[in-house]
Amino acid sequence: MCGIAGLVLKGRNVQADRLHPMIERLAHRGPDGQGVFTEGGFGLAHTRLSIIDLSGGRQPILADDGRLAVVANGEIYNHVELREALEREGRRFATHSDSETILHAYALDPEGFAGRLHGMFAFALYDGVRRRLVLGRDRLGIKPLFYAALPDRLVFASEMKAILPLLPNAPTIDAGAFSQFLHTHCSTGEETLFSGIRRLGPGEILEADAELNLRKRRYWTPLGVRSRALDFAEAEAEFEGMFEQVMKEHVRSDVPYGLFLSGGNDSAILLAMLSRLQAQPVRTFSIGYVDAAMKDELGDAERIAQVFGSRHTSIRLRREDLFRRIPHTVWAADDLMRDYASFPTSALSEAAAKELKVVFTGEGGDEVFGGYRRYRQPRLAWLARNLLAPGTGGFRTRSEWWRKRSQRLFGPALAAERKHFRAPYLKAWSEAPAVWSHLQHCQYTDLVTDLPDSLLVKVDRMMMGFGLEGRVPFLDHRVVEFGLGLPDALKTDGKRPKVFLRRWAERHVPKEHLYTKKRGFTVPVREWLGGELLDRLEGKLSGNAAVREWFDTRHFPALFQAQRKKGNASREIFCLMQFAIWHRLFIDQPGLKPSPDEDPLDWIS
């Protein structure tokens, strides 16, 4: 797990010192070392978090007498098997790093090499013979990669904050992406909050030559998955061996690992599997809240930890702990993304990073096996919603700023973008095969929108903010293809979620845990956003120049009064606070880095 960055200059040579500002902005992703490679107009940079081949895996890694160079972020989980295959095909390795397999796979097949890689990764590969840069991202978008293409340069990095120093002009905000964040809690797709900075999509390769001619292609997509007429016994027989192999690949590490344990099924299943694959107790961490009326999952997590005898730590956040973590989570997220679970994830990551470099998490199980309540709506509800907002079968139709009170807050630029906020969901829904079921359409839409651009942003950025690698076995592409292709009846019976996964897991996890009603990883923001903090926040936001540029602050008194009386404006107020802090960190004073313990109001200009 690392940070990667680099630069292609048209008609000029890249000097190593031009990459140093990028390295500084990515130091948190790789505190164990750094490296630079330059040749002509091409430059690669790397910050390293040592996980595999601790002594010999420094990057950039070179091959073929320096004609190939690579920097990579993430893990190639099948590097053992792939290395053996590549050596049989005549390749010779210089290190034991999993990342070196990328170079040798490319050398043998520059077009199809990425299909041989199992894992979570983003990489930049320089081909000195063809004089081109090759950027690639894993199939599900677990690892991030951003780029900016300008007339005289191509700049890329693991996080957008590392691109900003190499742009010729101060960044500006993309109104469409900003609007998406407000309406759907994240911006999704190619465009980001920064005009001109783009995401490389999951499963995509981008090539750039010395003249900055770009070629993009997609080497994997879930659209090729076919529905399969399996009964439970057939599915069970197939999944058992496949998931066993996935887990064996995922536990490959030269450093100790742990697990974030919620009260749900997915992390409990991972605990059961990890307990089978190692002799010593698994190191686990869970989180709950102090003085919150909302019930958390800490008790369930502690009980399942006792069942498997894990070496467990429970963390309890107070109201003040959560709010003082806001500036750091905004900085770490890089992009605006309103997922309250970022705060407990950040706290867990800070605690785990004091003793570990790798932690497993259960993300992806709901998308892959049909766990969300939003997948299980009555048919009439789907039909009614689709009549009101056609194009997605009644799925993801409503803005999170749906109240008229909220919409009055939009300034002219945001008001103009309001009608476009569903565009990524409409696109995803329409490109899914017509023969797929409604449930498969829902799964696919989430897999290509909210999963890479919200859920996995939380996992990667909150954890990497403390130099911690997160591993998500349920998002191995083999598991995703299996789950998406299951018959609907093995995903939900209309009332219960994840029918297959829970039945399969009965041999590994106590049934009373598997069939406990799911509560979700909730955070008491609505309950805690009040009192003196809310009063001070209203004054700060009302006077903030960036907020006043994008919003009509004349309607703020009604918004804040609604929160005081009914507590139903926390979502909008929280978005406004995030934006004000984000604007200061990335527009007004780029380069600032808050600590994990700050008064959020001090970071609103």
From TrEMBL:
<comment type="pathway">
    <text>Amino-acid biosynthesis; L-asparagine biosynthesis; L-asparagine from L-aspartate (L-Gln route): step 1/1.</text>
</comment>
<dbReference type="InterPro" id="IPR033738">
    <property type="entry name" value="AsnB_N"/>
</dbReference>
<dbReference type="InterPro" id="IPR006426">
    <property type="entry name" value="Asn_synth_AEB"/>
</dbReference>
<dbReference type="Pfam" id="PF13537">
    <property type="entry name" value="GATase_7"/>
</dbReference>
<feature type="domain" description="Glutamine amidotransferase type-2">
    <location>
        <begin position="2"/>
        <end position="211"/>
    </location>
</feature>
<feature type="binding site">
    <location>
        <position position="98"/>
    </location>
    <ligand>
        <name>L-glutamine</name>
    </ligand>
</feature>
<dbReference type="InterPro" id="IPR014729">
    <property type="entry name" value="Rossmann-like_a/b/a_fold"/>
</dbReference>
<dbReference type="GO" id="GO:0005829">
    <property type="term" value="C:cytosol"/>
</dbReference>
<keyword id="KW-0436">Ligase</keyword>
<feature type="binding site">
    <location>
        <position position="287"/>
    </location>
    <ligand>
        <name>ATP</name>
    </ligand>
</feature>
<dbReference type="Pfam" id="PF00733">
    <property type="entry name" value="Asn_synthase"/>
</dbReference>
<dbReference type="InterPro" id="IPR051786">
    <property type="entry name" value="ASN_synthetase/amidase"/>
</dbReference>
<dbReference type="InterPro" id="IPR029055">
    <property type="entry name" value="Ntn_hydrolases_N"/>
</dbReference>
<dbReference type="GO" id="GO:0005524">
    <property type="term" value="F:ATP binding"/>
</dbReference>
<keyword id="KW-0061">Asparagine biosynthesis</keyword>
<comment type="similarity">
    <text>Belongs to the asparagine synthetase family.</text>
</comment>
<dbReference type="InterPro" id="IPR001962">
    <property type="entry name" value="Asn_synthase"/>
</dbReference>
<dbReference type="InterPro" id="IPR017932">
    <property type="entry name" value="GATase_2_dom"/>
</dbReference>
<protein>
    <recommendedName>
        <fullName>asparagine synthase (glutamine-hydrolyzing)</fullName>
        <ecNumber>6.3.5.4</ecNumber>
    </recommendedName>
</protein>
<feature type="active site" description="For GATase activity">
    <location>
        <position position="2"/>
    </location>
</feature>
<dbReference type="GO" id="GO:0006529">
    <property type="term" value="P:asparagine biosynthetic process"/>
</dbReference>
<keyword id="KW-0547">Nucleotide-binding</keyword>
<keyword id="KW-0067">ATP-binding</keyword>
<dbReference type="GO" id="GO:0004066">
    <property type="term" value="F:asparagine synthase (glutamine-hydrolyzing) activity"/>
</dbReference>
<keyword id="KW-0028">Amino-acid biosynthesis</keyword>
<keyword id="KW-0315">Glutamine amidotransferase</keyword>
<feature type="site" description="Important for beta-aspartyl-AMP intermediate formation">
    <location>
        <position position="363"/>
    </location>
</feature>
